[in-house]
Design brief:
Blueprint lengths: L1 E5 L9 H5 L4 E6 L12 H13 L3 E6 L5 H5 L4 H17 L4 E4 L11 E5 L5 E5 L1 H5 L17 H10 L5 H22 L2 E4 L18 H10 L5 E6 H5 L6 H10 L5 E4 L1 E4 L5 E4 L10 H10 L5 E4 L17 H22 L1
Parallel strand pairs: 1-2, 1-12, 2-3, 3-4, 4-7, 7-8, 8-9, 9-12
Antiparallel strand pairs: 5-6, 6-11, 10-11
Helix pairs in contact: 4-7, 10-11, 11-12
């Protein structure tokens, strides 16, 4: 296992020197953010990120993410050019020593929450999701936390309209088309693609979701069995779906060698579909974090891990979900769980 930490590049308020001081931190998970989606990342931008990491004693082996253009998801005529660009990005990242690319295939929104600063009893705050509140929103006049600056109203309405004609089957077919287009580059660069599950794992605003359940993952691997076609095992995203058995899924896909990357975070259910994010400990929420880690270790997981969304604690006013303190605590907790599980295996 390699412990990693999400870093948003030179504009991140959290420094690489601070990340390096977190125990057992091997490297960062980052990306080139200034290049428009669908275009090729300049080699000098990739090299700059890597050099900054090396100077701080950190690796840059995971990229999250090279975004997938909406035209690829929609299956438009422009997709072949965009897939070729994506493949070139993979080759360039491979040259820089990257070994895993986390990506998603969610239409329009790659995550949704209704509140970015829900206050807990202890005074910390975190992201939360209230399904009824979301469903009360008018799709023609959407205002969503974290997304209000991502699209203009016309852009958002155009995308929502375009997806009205895209079924779950079509979106899945477009995913397989995309993956087949980039697999030769992944093989050449020795990079694993790690698809992130839908967050949260259900349809909304008429947008189809296709990576939400164990059956969805089985279907993906059956359609494209290439070993470079892998999964980001995100406990928070899968865990929001109460029918997902995360301990069993962790063991199953780790044993199959299909989890190059794991996002480990805790959520606490408050309704059938409602949840709030919380501290990483098993006792803090609704997910068996220890059981998940134990299942990963017992089934040979040797990939990358990062503590996923944390709370804002101790007066920190960080990027929602991505402050320093609680994610550092989460990393320390996960280090302990992995060590305990590994020692148990040795016996």
């Amino acid at each position: 296992m390699k412990m990693t930490f999400r870093w948003y590049g030179e504009s991140d308020s959290i420094s690489l020197s601070a990340i390096r001081q977190i125990p057992n931190m091997s490297g960062v998970v980052t990306a080139v953010y200034r290049v428009p989606v669908g275009e090729v990342w300049p080699r000098e931008d990739i090299a700059r990120l890597r050099e900054l990491c090396v100077q701080n004693g950190l690796e840059m082996e995971v990229i999250e993410s090279v975004p997938v253009h909406e035209d690829i998801k929609l299956g438009r005529e422009t997709r072949d050019r965009l897939i070729a660009n994506y493949a070139e990005n993979i080759r360039r990242l491979g040259e820089a020593g990257v070994r895993c690319v986390c990506y998603n295939f969610m239409p329009v929104f790659d995550w949704l929450r209704t509140n970015l600063h829900t206050e807990a009893e202890d005074g910390s705050n975190s992201l939360s999701y209230d399904h009824e509140q979301l469903m009360r929103l008018d799709p023609h006049h959407l205002s969503l936390p974290g997304w209000d600056e991502s699209y203009t109203r016309d852009e958002l309405q155009g995308l929502l309209a375009a997806y009205k004609t895209v079924s779950h089957e079509q979106l899945f077919d477009n995913l397989i088309y995309f993956l087949r287009g980039i697999m030769p580059a992944c093989q050449e660069a020795k990079i694993d693609m790690a698809i992130h599950p839908d967050d949260p794992p259900w349809d909304m605003f008429g947008l189809p979701r296709i990576i939400s359940t164990e059956a969805d993952i089985d279907r993906l691997f059956a359609a494209l069995p290439d070993p470079h076609n892998g999964l980001t095992f995100c406990t928070g995203s899968f865990g929001a779906g109460r029918d997902n058995d995360l301990v069993r899924m962790a063991g199953k896909y780790a044993a199959a060698g299909r989890i190059p990357f794991a996002h480990i975070r805790q959520i606490k259910w408050s309704g059938e579909l409602d949840f709030a994010e919380c501290g990483h400990r098993t006792e803090a929420g609704s997910l068996d974090i220890y059981g998940i880690v134990r299942a990963l270790v017992q089934n040979g997981f040797a990939g990358y891990v990062r503590p996923d969304h944390g709370r804002n604690i101790w007066g920190e006013d960080g990027k929602p979900g991505y402050g320093l303190y609680d994610r550092a605590l989460g990393a320390a907790y996960l280090n302990g769980l992995f060590e305990a599980a590994e020692r148990e295996m040795e016996k």
